[in-house]
Structure formats: C-alpha cells, structure tokens
Amino acid sequence: MTMNTETDPISPSLRSGGPTAFEQLLTEKGTLVADGAMGTTLFDMGLESGGCPELLNIERPELVDRVHQAFVDAGADIILTNTFGGNRRRLALHGLADRVAELNEAAVHVAAAVRSRADRPVLIAGSIGPTGDLFEPLGPLTISEGADVFGEQARALATAGADILWIETLSSWDELAAAIEGCAGLGLPTVATLSFDTNGKTMMGLSPREFGEWWSKLDEPPVAIGANCGIGPGDAVAAAFDITAVAPDVPVITKANCGIPLYKSEAPEYPVGPDGMADYVELAVRSGARIIGSCCGSTPAHVAAIRAAVDGGVTGSRPDRSEIEARLEAAPDIAPQARRRRNRRG
After folding, report:
1. Is the residue at 4 inside a domain?
2. What pLDDT digit, counting tens, does each position of 274-305 carry?
3. For residue 319, is the peptide bond before it cis, meaning its omega torsion is within 30 degrees of 0?
4. What is the domain-level CATH number for residue 329?
C-alpha cells in the first residue's frame, strides 16, 4: 500500500498490556484483507435453506475447512469463524440452545487447522452476529440479558483461541451496548460493524457519523469499527467516509455485500462481481478503511481481487462524497441541515 506505516496507526489508549496480534499485523501491513461470505458459500455447497450453518462445525467440519482454506488461498489476512448465528437465541431456533460452547469452540478449531497450514500470519476472528430479537421496549430483551447471551458465545470463542471478537451486522444502540458488554474482560481485541442498509442508516436509524462519534467518546473503544453486509460496496464505503469524518483515528472496516441479490433461478445471483472490487478497494482506502473484505454473495475470487487491489497500492486523496455515490452507487448523503428541515416537515 502507498501509505505511511512508520508510526503505529493504533492509538495507545486502545491497548492493555501491549499490542495484540491484530494490532501488530495491522501496523505491519497497513491494510488488512478480511474474508468473504461464509454463509452463501456453504449454501452453494449444499446447506439446505433453513439449516443451521453452525452445526456443520461438528457434523461436516470439512466443508467449513474448505471455505476457510479457499479464502486464505485467495489472500485473506482475517478469517471469520462459522458462528454468525452461534448465540443461544439463534441456536434455539434449531433446538441447539444448549450447545453454544460446543459449536463455537469447534468453529475456532476448524479455523485454527486452516491457519496452521498457512505460510503467513492469519488471524481468527470469532464472528458474533445479532441475537435475532429486538430489545425493550420493542422486543423481549434487556441490555443485561443480551449481554449475557453475547458473553456466553464470546467466552467460548475466546476459550478456543480466537484472536479477535468480531461483532457484526448489528443495527441498534441497545444491541451494540449488550454485545460490547458481553465481550468485555476476555483479554481479546473487539471490533464492531453495523449494517447500514436503510437509506444510509441501520434498520434502527443509526448513522455512520453517530457510530464514529460513539467510538470517539468511549474510554475503551473497540479496536476497529465499520460497516458490513448492507446494500453493496457503495454504502459500505460511504459509511467509512462518514465515520472517518468524525473519528479520523479509528481503523475502519468495510465488508460489503455484492449488491442486492437477484432471483433469476432458485439460487440468488449477486450483481457485483470480482471485477468490481478494484474501485471498491480504491475508494475504501481513500475514505480511511484499513480492513477490507466482502460479505454476502462474495467468493474467493472476490477476495483475490481485493488482495490484488490492496497489494497493487492505492494512491489519491480523500474522495468527495459525490465520487463515492457516482462510482459505487452509494445512497446519497443528507446534509445535517437538510435532515433537520425534513424532520421538521414530518
């Protein structure tokens, strides 16, 4: 990458007891490549619709191994465990609420086996997705109950040897607070990504700027924050742009969907192919992203294209928001003044 890595990009305030493996690798490489879609890849391999991906960690670990290996071969520095729905609330839908520790620990062990075969550093991120429930007063969960749910999963991931606790695809302040509380005190760096999929905000109305401001005010913030899933590369990059506008020091993650799937046959088809990754990487890096991967619909070919673009180097100054919107079809920005006028009009 064409960037200065002589100084440590991670704020010393984020550290406790020295840099972690994640911080060291980010400092060394400047930009890290995260993996692609675990779930859609498993469905392509034959996982039935409505099936439990986490159960494959026990019953078909060779399938999960193949997915991880393909992403590592494509150049991923970070692989996310097959545990997105590995909390007890989600597992209860499959009658597996009592197997949280078993399934999460098995997922880390599968990822660790793949890492052991790599000829370079690869980090294991313990994927922690949403509970699937709303929080009070809209739903049944309190923040305390949610923290207990997240904490059970996080402890299993940490016990099994994950390098990072990777909170992803959240949409509300309460669930974010619960997830951060559940991951606290386990001695691992934590990252958090939200899904900005509703006119540039999360489903529950959080904006990227608010997310960046939240990070800036914490005494012990996550080591990285950003956007995952969502509408497509444009909205993920726009989120990175908006986060770094108010929190320029935070390492930002973009892990975007490959667009909205089209159902031309039984299997969904995603419109953004590997050839769209070069523009995505360029604008993500210029907008301040430091960890770049892909989400739903992405394949090892997408990750390989991201790797090539990162290794090829990115030059150029910070883009205008209009450039992101034009080149990646991001949702248009609503200036704070216009937003206030619109809210007053109802």
Report:
1. no
2. 999 999 999 999 999 999 999 999 999 999 99
3. no
4. 3.20.20.330
